[in-house]
Each structure stands twice: as C-alpha cells, then as structure tokens.
Specification:
The protein contains nine helices and 15 strands. With about 400 residues, the chain is α+β, with helices and mostly antiparallel strands. It folds into two domains: about 5-165, no CATH class; about 170-380, no CATH class. The strands form four sheets. The chain has a six-stranded mixed sheet, with helices on both faces. The protein has a five-stranded antiparallel sheet with strand order 9-8-7-11-12, covered by helices on one side. It has a two-stranded antiparallel ribbon with strand order 10-13. α7 (about 335-345) crosses α9 (about 355-380).
Length: about 400
Amino acid sequence: MGKPHFTTSIWNPYGSPKAPPPDPLLPCGLSQDLPPVRYADYFSALESALTSHGMQALREALGSAWGAAVKPEEIDRVHVESVKHGAFYHVARMEVAVGSQRISLAMNSAFTPHRQAVMHRELKALDRVSAGPGAPFFPRCHYQGQYPCVDVNEKVHRVSYFLAQWFDGYHEFHLRDAPGAQNLHVWDGSPDGILLGGREAAAVFREGARILTLCLDRATFEQVYPWHHAAGDMVVRCGGRAPRLRVISARDYRAIVPGGQEAHERLAAIMSFFYVLTLRLRLDRHEGTGRLLWADGVWVPAMVEGFWKGWVEGQPRSLDSETGALREALLGFSAQDWAVFGEYLLDDLIVDPEEAAFIASKLGEHGKDLARSLEDQLRLGPQKEKGCGS
C-alpha cells in the first residue's frame, strides 16, 4: 500500500506560502518551556502521525467529516501548512485530496503536559458546545491521538494532537488604530490584508456577542471561557452581505458566577456573563502580540444588540418572564453601578496577568458605554451604526 503524496509549507500572512527551511526551529513566542524542534522534524512527525497504522488518523477524520468510510488507497495527496505557534498549540492546516474531493482540517499539537491538559479541557468544552445552539460556529473534532517528535537534542517527546474542522475562507483579525478611527485588520494572506470599519466591524462584534451568548448554558450558566481576540480565537469571512464569524477555540466551559435557584441569583449570573462578554470583546493586542488595545465605545451598541439577540434566540419559552426581568435589570444599572460591578468581577475579567492594570483603568469608561448603549438598544431599539471608517 503506497502513501499519499505529502508536501509541506509555512503560512505567510503577507503573501504566498513559504517552503519549510531545513534547520530553523519552530517559533516559541513568549513560551519558555517548549522544546527546541526543527521544522523538518516537526513535519516529519506530522507525516508519520497521519500515515501510520494504515493511515488510521486520516481515515477516521475523513470518515467523521464526510460520514462515509475512506480507504487508504483513495487518499491521493496531503499538504500540511504550518500556520501558527500559539500559547498552547502548534497549529497546522491540512488539505487532503481524495479523488476530486478536497477537505481542509486543522491539526493542533500540544508538546508539554501543561498544554496537553489545556487540550483535554478544550476537547471536553467542544463536546459540550456541540450539543447546543452554538455548535455550527465551532469546529468539530474528528480525531485525537499522540505522536513522537524529536527535538534538536535528540530527546523524544510524546505530543498530543487532535484533528478538527478547518473553516476555509475565514481569517484571524485584530484591532488596528488608525488616524481618527479604529478598524479591524483581517489577515487574509494578501500583502495589506482587509480593513473592516463602520457597519462591517460592528457586524463582527455583534455576531461575536450573539454566538457566545448562544453557548451559555441557561441552567448552570457555564460558558465558553476564557477566550481572547489576541489569541485569534475568532475568525471572520469577508464578502457577501455581511462578515461571517466563527470561533475556533473553546479553552474551557465553566461558570463565572454560578446561578442559584432564586430569581435574583439567576439575574446576577446573567448580568455577570453580559459584563464579562462585552468587556472582553473590547480587548485585543496590536497584531495579536503587541501592546494592549481597547475597542472604541462606538461599537458597544453592536455588542449589546448581539447579546440580546443571542439571549432571546436561546431562551426557552418557559422562561420568557425572566427575559423581561433581565431587560429591566440591565436598564436599571447606571454607569456607576456598572463600574462597581466591574470591580467586583475584576479577577474574572483577567485572562493574562499583564491585562490587570489596563482593564482596571477601563472600568469607568466601560460602565458609561454600557449604560448608554443599553438605553439605545433595549429602550429605544437598535440604532443605525455610525461609521468608524472602512
């Protein structure tokens, strides 16, 4: 039985993919505990993982994605592109050719015990999300396993990985400050990328709030958290009537403030979710790794609207009265009330310790923006967005 034709490349955000160099090491970013691994050894390990044992990993992943069995000899070609080296995973994109069919898959690899624990939590979180209304917006996991990979010191590491759905045509994006305005910079692989401003950027924030609200468990108030724009956890597809959004990571699924049995306890849990959601949507880093950035208040109304749409869509009819009570509670909070609420939730708002002082300095501003936006969206109705530049 012959193996499929196997090729590799390194993703270039500013143009065509690059051929893998033989000696340079995989980037480690700010991580200090990752082993030094050459690109050549990394790609060799990936190929072995995908093609060993009668190509079990590929066959099971393709069978899960397509709902039909695939024979080893039917797999013609596999191209693996090293895409990203984040805080937890080395991420590769695979394109697999089976006759005239093509499919893209993500291959996420975790090299250390800490990262493997993160992967274990993520797989459990994705499983929880897959059972709810947010499922279409998250990747499906198709296979998980381990492979050996050697580092430059000839030490062999047992690497955990999983194969998942890759959202073709969707790209990472980040806040970008521009003279007189902000916009969203989409890394679509072109030299300059795509800039989204005004209504298009508002649509991205609105949909992000809606998707994450759809994933909220209305009984336990467990949710997808933590997440971070800076990590590229959300991706966008441009074109058509409006940008479309997907979430590519679910690092955990847990409650920030557990809901009790009493109505006031449930309201407190919902409002905590709302506050954390809207504040985290405003936080990013320049180009994903640089200085902390804060989204302008002009986009907060879209975040509020997205939350409310997600809440109404996902709320059981038997709890319609709770929606009315929530509306009154949200409108009853003043800017100062929201600022104090933020101080109460401060520890839960922080994903990266470096964010602590920055977030604390924004609580007052966020409170004012929330109070104003809630008045506009829930009492007056959704307003036409004001452009921020395109």
